[in-house]
Design brief:
Elements lengths: L3 H26 L44 H9 L19 E6 L2 E7 L4 E9 L4 E6 L9 E7 L5 E8 L7 E3 L12 E5 L2 E9 L6 E9 L13 E8 L4 E2 L5 H27 L6 H31 L4 H22 L9 H29 L4 H34 L10
Helix pairs in contact: 1-3, 1-7, 3-4, 3-6, 3-7, 4-5, 5-6, 6-7
């Protein structure tokens, strides 16, 4: 039976785990963010490829103070913004009737207009309040920056218009490649225009099918691009837009934070701690057993919650992240087998106990390994930034150091025990 000292020790451990959770929580809440930087473009067109159209820039336009206000507040504001005559864009973008063009304020001062023809050719016009720098819209398969293709427009210091497609191949600036991408642009040149205090970025693309629910990345940077490499964004967001209904999908992004938090606390902290207790504190019987069972069960509950939230996020966002999802389900299956092992544990004297020990130990180790791997993969997929990577790296390093130290002490203890001479010796006959 558990003594009162056991419950005191158990309470102290729970308080310690709570304090660790409070300390680490802010780091891992960032795992749901889109924290990667984009790139930079240029004052000239060195490749002279005609990928942009130079238009007149009116230097007297009143956009000096850079103030930002939310677009489309209320029906009156929406009508005023979406009722703007677009003839200044020129054909074919300015020839489309405003009655045919779908218009929706989507983020900050960004307004999205589009018209989708029967042959799946879509005309897209993005507008936003502009001072300096660049604005961009990216199309992604999973809502993440890496792997997406973006159209970016800006005006250089001389007032020349620039617009390029970029392929966001990786995290580094060198991996954001100009004049590449998977957007199926047609032969109509894209256009960027300044009109009043707004910048308008217009292009056409012919898709294989009519667009429905689509992850979109929006960003802007206030510094001028140089040499076709975008400067760091000043703000960015990712939304899921339904082109069939002209609406931003109402996805609770706090679910991503909760998914990350539950996964890290469950699989990155509690379950490794429970395994360490089972291996190195068996001389504290029965304390080690109660601690191991209680912590592992709590870790399993948190891990299960992370998986359920992940499934819900996959359904609502339609995100294409098969590796992360498959590993998560695999780890969940292993953890369920471990829970079953708890109820099917044979007696110590049973001849099957040795096989049960082998199964319980190795399935647990495999689950912990893939759990840590999936946390790292999730952090990378979420583009969570260096703070989150350093935070989990610090937690992982502490766990590994603790295992190494405890393993060394355990080996020394076993060696000392084996070297002790018996207390009583029998004289040889």
């Amino acid at each position: 039976m558990a003594t009162s000292s056991f419950w005191v020790s158990f309470s102290r451990i729970l308080v310690g785990l709570y304090l660790v959770f409070v300390f680490l929580e802010p780091k891992f809440l960032a795992a749901a963010g889109f924290n990667k930087n984009w790139v930079e473009p240029d004052n000239i067109d060195p490749d002279n490829d005609g990928q942009y159209q130079v238009l007149t820039h009116d230097s007297d336009d009143p956009f000096a103070d850079g103030s930002i206000s939310t677009a489309g507040d209320g029906d009156g504001g929406r009508y005023e913004v979406c009722g703007t005559d677009l003839s200044f864009l020129g054909p074919p973008y300015g020839n489309i009737s405003t009655s045919k063009m779908v218009c929706s304020p989507i983020w900050n001062t960004f307004i999205l207009r589009y018209y989708q023809r029967g042959d799946n050719v879509m005309t897209i016009i993005l507008s936003a309040v502009y001072t300096t720098g660049w604005v961009g819209i990216g199309f992604s398969s999973n809502g993440m920056m890496v792997g997406s293709s973006a159209m970016v427009g800006w005006f250089d210091r001389k007032g020349h218009a620039r617009v390029k497609q970029y392929y966001l191949q990786g995290d580094d600036e060198s991996q954001v490649i100009p004049d590449k991408g998977e957007l199926p642009l047609n032969n109509i040149p894209p256009v960027v225009v300044l009109h009043g205090a707004m910048i308008y970025l217009a292009f056409q693309a012919k898709f294989d099918h009519r667009l429905g629910r689509q992850p979109i990345i929006l960003a802007f940077g206030c510094r001028y691009p140089t040499h076709l490499h975008l400067t760091k964004h000043d703000d960015k967001t990712a939304i899921w837009f339904d082109f069939s209904q002209a609406s931003v999908l109402d996805i609770d992004m706090s679910q991503k934070k909760n998914h990350a938090m539950l996964g890290v606390i469950g699989w990155g902290l509690l379950l490794p701690a429970g395994a360490i207790i089972a291996r190195y504190l068996k001389h504290k019987d029965p304390l080690w057993y109660y601690l191991h069972a209680g912590i592992q069960f709590l870790g399993f509950i948190l891990g299960l919650g992370a998986v359920l939230l992940g499934i819900q996020l996959h359904r609502s966002m339609d995100a294409d992240i098969p590796a992360h999802r498959a590993i998560g389900i695999f780890v969940l299956v292993l953890s369920i087998l471990q829970i079953m092992a708890f109820f099917l544990r044979p007696d110590k004297d049973s001849k099957y106990r040795r096989y049960w020990n082998w199964y319980h130990h190795w399935f647990g180790r495999i689950a912990l390994f893939f759990g840590a791997l999936n946390i790292i993969l999730g952090i990378e997929i979420a583009n969570a930034g260096n703070e989150c990577k350093i935070g989990y790296g610090f937690l992982l390093a502490i766990t590994l150091v603790a295992v190494i130290v405890l393993e060394g002490l355990s080996c020394m203890r076993r060696r000392d025990k084996s070297s002790l001479s018996p207390t009583f010796q029998m004289n040889p006959i």
